[in-house]
Amino acid sequence: MPSLIPLNRRQVYPVLGSVNLGEQLKQLQPDIHVYGHSHVNQSIE
Fold first, then answer.
1. What is the pLDDT along the chain (45 residues), one digit of tens a residue?
2. The whole model's pTM is what?
3. Of the four listed, 16, 22, 23, 26, which is most buried by Cβ atoms within 10 Å?
């Protein structure tokens, strides 16, 4: 998550993903990965 998020708003970080999920996705190599929203405005392509 971007470092611009204030510390008092980072309590949601544990439910926004994990290292284990990232590793699993790397192994599965899906064409697309869709997740819910986090109310953090950013665009990554």
1. 677 778 887 787 777 777 888 899 899 999 988 877 666 666 667
2. 0.45
3. 16
